[in-house]
Design a protein that fits this description.
Elements lengths: L8 E7 L3 E6 L5 E5 L2 H11 L3 E6 L6 H9 L4 E4 L1 H10 L7 H9 L15 H27 L7 H29 L1 H11 L6 H10 L8 H7 L4 E6 L2 E7 L4 H17 L1 H12 L4 H25 L7
Parallel strand pairs: 1-4, 4-5
Antiparallel strand pairs: 1-2, 2-3, 6-7
Helix pairs in contact: 1-2, 5-6, 5-8, 7-8, 7-12, 8-10, 9-12, 10-11, 10-12, 11-12
Length: about 325
């Protein structure tokens, strides 16, 4: 079945660690399958026909289901948990069981508007895992470094010192492994090089964006802003017209973009002028910085698009 074809049925799949409950929107039947690639392929094969698989992001437990759908040629959608939860509440069902959730997921009738799941390649997946682990370690190291600065010299300081040293060693090892992955993948290497060439974007920013936002270069500027969590959303009601706020998006992308925007404000002439112009127009510092982050991701997306995805003009 092609991604654009209208599905004959929607399969709502509620994913748990050990099992997946599948609801067929046509027959109204439920089936529980083991959460393994082999069992899920068999379950999807039994359904047959043009089916659209819908599930919720569950921290990785949905990986086997998405892989099975891909191998069986079925388009799939992995939904944002917050949006799925809001949709299920709109059905006015107060109960919560796996079958109820599976049936609710099958009720996502807007299948034409739901983004199809695109499985990442192994290099992309491994890079994403390592980048997230490094970010966790850096955060933990910073927390314990603050504890080291606390007054006193108790017995805990020795253990904290050893922990910080261990974090440093793990971070160094992860960075070496990241370099190996990038060196073996031409697309990742090219993407990271493009981002690093932009003033304000260092190696950590480039690698984080390449890992957490593989869609860069294939998005519109509005999509790039929305995925990065820098898109302003209006807040008006009656006579009230509050500041537009940024919500949603990928948190790891939003965090690293904010840091990069702070650097770009000082070292990128174009973005520095943009920031100063916003401040002179009365914008608050935080609003101006978020606008810089939004402009930065737009520039990154455009440069990757032009360098990698835009068709090259052939010389006659």
């Amino acid at each position: 079945m092609s991604d654009d074809a209208t599905p004959l049925r929607v399969l709502g799949c509620d994913v748990a660690k050990d099992s997946v409950v599948i609801f067929d929107s046509v027959t109204g039947r439920y089936e529980t399958a083991e959460n393994s690639l082999k069992a899920l392929r068999c379950a999807l094969r039994r359904v047959g026909g043009q089916a659209f698989v819908v599930c919720e992001a569950t921290g990785g437990y949905e990986a086997a289901l998405l892989a099975a759908a891909g191998l069986e040629g079925l388009p799939a959608h992995r939904g944002d948990p917050r949006k799925i939860s809001a949709f299920l509440r709109s059905l006015r069902s107060h109960g919560k069981t796996d079958p109820i959730d599976a049936k609710g997921l099958a009720g996502l009738e807007r299948h034409g508007q739901l983004a199809r799941w695109q499985p990442p390649n192994k290099a992309q997946q491994h890079l994403q895992q390592l980048v997230r682990l490094r970010a966790d370690l850096v955060g933990n190291r910073a927390d314990y470094a603050r504890r080291m600065k606390a007054p006193g010299d108790g017995p805990d300081k020795r253990h904290i010192r050893d922990f910080i040293k261990s974090c440093d060693q793990r971070i160094t090892a992860i960075e070496a492994e990241v370099d190996k992955i990038v060196a073996t993948d031409t697309h990742l290497a090219q993407t990271i090089a493009i981002i690093k060439a932009i003033p304000g974007c260092g190696p950590v920013t480039a690698i984080t964006l390449a890992a957490a936002m593989p869609e860069l270069g294939k998005l519109s500027r509005r999509q790039a802003a929305a995925l990065s969590g820098t898109a302003p959303h209006p807040r008006t009601s009656g006579k009230s017209n509050a500041y537009r706020s940024v919500r949603g998006g990928r948190q790891d992308v939003k965090t690293i973009l904010f840091i990069a925007a702070m650097t770009a404000r000082n070292h990128n002439p174009e973005l520095r002028d943009f920031y100063e112009r916003l401040r002179k127009n009365g914008k608050k510092p935080i609003v101006a910085i978020i606008a810089v982050a939004r402009k930065l991701i737009t520039i990154i997306n455009a440069k990757i698009r032009d360098a990698i995805y835009k068709p090259k003009k052939q010389l006659s």
